[in-house]
Amino acid sequence: MKKKSSRLDAIKMIISSTEIGSQEELLQALGSEGFNLTQATLSRDLKLLKVAKAANTNGKYVYVLPNDIMYKRSSHQSAGEMLVHNGFISLQFSHNIAVIRTRPGYASRIAYDIDNRECPAILGTIAGDDTIMLVLAEDVTHDAVRAFLSEIIPNVQ
C-alpha cells in the first residue's frame, strides 16, 4: 500500500491536471495510479487538502485546489509521471556549485527536501521559483552529489 503523503500528492496532481467532477471519477483515476482506497478515505483526504468544487468554463462543476502554484492545471502528464519527475528539468555543476533547474514553482519544494536530508556534501541551498543553487563542500565529487540527489529526485542523471 502506498503512503498517505504519496496519495495526497497524487490527488493534487490528478485534480490539477484533469477535470474531475465526482469522487467516483477521482477514485478511478487514483486506482489507475496504483492507489486503492475507500470513498470515506478519499472524502477525508479531500477535506484535509481543502479541495472545493467550482464551475469550469463549460459550467461543469469540477474539483479545484486552493491556490497553490505547484499544482496549477498546466500539464498533460499523468499524476504518476508528475510525481516521478517532481518538476525537475536539469542539473549542472561549476566547481563547487550545482544548479538545478525546475518547472516554475517547484524549486522551493525540492530545496526543502534537500535541506531536510542534511547531506554533508551540500553546505546549503538557495531557491527561487525555478532554480536552486547548491553550494558544495570542498573536494566533493559531482558523482557523489548526483547520487545523493537521486534519492530525492528520482530522474536526476
Describe the structure.
- With 157 residues, the chain is an alpha+beta fold.
- The protein has six helices and six strands, in the order αααββαββαββα.
- It has helices at residues 4-17, 23-32, 39-48, 79-85, 107-116, 142-152; strands at 52-55, 61-64, 88-94, 97-102, 122-127, 131-136.
- A four-stranded antiparallel beta sheet has the order 3-4-6-5, covered by helices on one side. A two-stranded antiparallel ribbon has the order 1-2.
- Helix 1 (4-17) packs across helix 4.
- The model is unreliable at 68-76 (pLDDT under 50).
Give the SSE map.
Layout: H1 4-17, H2 23-32, H3 39-48, E1 52-55, E2 61-64, H4 79-85, E3 88-94, E4 97-102, H5 107-116, E5 122-127, E6 131-136, H6 142-152
Antiparallel strand pairs: 1-2, 3-4, 4-6, 5-6
Helix pairs in contact: 1-4
Strand content: 15-25%
Given the C-alpha coordinates, what overall shape results?
elongated
What are the secondary-structure elements, in order, as H or E?
HHHEEHEEHEEH
Largest β sheet strand count, sense and barrel closure: 4 strands, antiparallel
- Total beta strand runs: 6
Query: Residue ranges: pLDDT <50 for 5 or more in a row?
Result: 68-76
Report how far apart the termini are: 28 Å
Mean pLDDT: 84
Q: Total helix count?
A: 6
- Radius of gyration from CA coordinates: 18 Å
Structural class: alpha+beta
Residues in helices, as a percent range:
25-40%
**Strand ordering within the main sheet:** 3-4-6-5
